[in-house]
Task: structure prediction
Amino acid sequence: MRSKKTILDVSMSLLLQLVTVICGFILPKLILQRFGSQYNGLTTSISQFLACAVLLRSGIGGVTRAALYKPLAKKDNDEISGIMNATNIFMRKIAFILVILIIIFSIIYPFFVIDEFSWIFSFSLFLIIGIGTVAESLLGITYLILLQADQKLWVASLFRIVSIVLNVVLASLLILNGFSIHIVKLGSSLAFCLYPLLLNIYVKRKYKLNKNIAPNNKAIGQRWDAFWHQVAIFVTNNTDVVVLTMFTNMLEVSVYSVYNMVISALKNLVFSFSSGLEAAFGNMIAKNQSDLLKRNLSLVEYVVFSIATLVYTCSIILIVSFVRIYTKGITDINYLRPTFACILLIAHFFYCIRIPYQMVIEAAGHYKQTRNGAIIEAFLNIFISVALVIKYGLVGVAIGTFISMAFRTIQLALYTSNKIIDRNINVVIKNLFISVVEAILIILITNTLNLNIPNTYFEWIINGVIVSMIAIFIIGIVTIIFYRDEFKYLIEKIKSVLKRKNKKDYVMENNI
Result:
């Protein structure tokens, strides 16, 4: 049952990322063509500043999920209700503070861009985008946490797809019909309000939560320890744009946003393959299945390292040519920044390969024990980015991101191996070394082909297929040599799920 739920979560999450990628390329392109790079940079910058406010909710999600695993496994509805009631009370307080902060930020933020946009223009746009941020990030967050813990993330993914598609359709129509950026973003904010509404309706119908049960505040007592973990994630995802806003201009922010749009899509793609696994790990820990946990961690490591190597190595080869085509005809700033792109891609490779270790730590609820590493990561990213941005610009903030991500990934891998799984850290070193060798081989072989510089998306796709086939071939050979046991176990799991599905279908057919 665990494997079936995990595969369903992963499948729907992959579909969500496919929709997100397709839709995510449409709107920025339309904004660039209709309004220009400065407007694209402005909307990106505002979204990142709003993320500072949303940071307030951080910590509650992971702690609540960790607290829910045991009562969900035992089907203890009273304990589930107590945890959810405590979380709801906490989130209502956070929502109120968030609204106040958005108003304050909307007053202060325009002074950072006053040379490029009027105060009233930036102020009003900030408030409009803030509406969607509050709705999307807070109103349905407690129910999303419950679905994640119960391995029903596929439901939330489905609702998210609906809101994303509605957003793109509505915003595109507004842009094409000549409406202002304020009206376009207001349409987006209203579309995103649908997501928490659907989550609320589904959870209230499917779960018998008792609001009269006393809030179990003790169960979420580690929320402030988890907060620092989320600070690190926030800094990883948002510091670059904030620093660029403060020390450069909106044109540079626009360049960053285009590359980050691609890299975020890749990151979410890799994360999709691990959707629902934290809940599965949490279930194993709740049932004290330590040997099964260790074996499944090795499997997830193999899958994540292989996919991350494939995705990010191909991206290093292909991303600049894609950006050249994507920004064709836009001449207000140079978008071709290969050094910046390469450093940022390597940084996000390290971010993705931490997935297995972070999931196990969160499933075990070891937030306090790993809190200091999160604080150091945040400090490194901010300090290095600010120190280097004036002289090196985009490359400077990319270096800051890379160093902080690499540090945190190593720290999480060491803690997981030494404190939870009890195994030799050489396993992680071996995985990393193999990924580096795979990447070098893929790049060397691809370079010998002298691929043509593409001028159209079709030509770029052809190059992408060639590079991907080379990467898959090399990773496949390495799998046969070094990951034979993990690959066999993966095939066994897939066969097991398919057999259960076929057996269920057979029973249903014979009962009709």
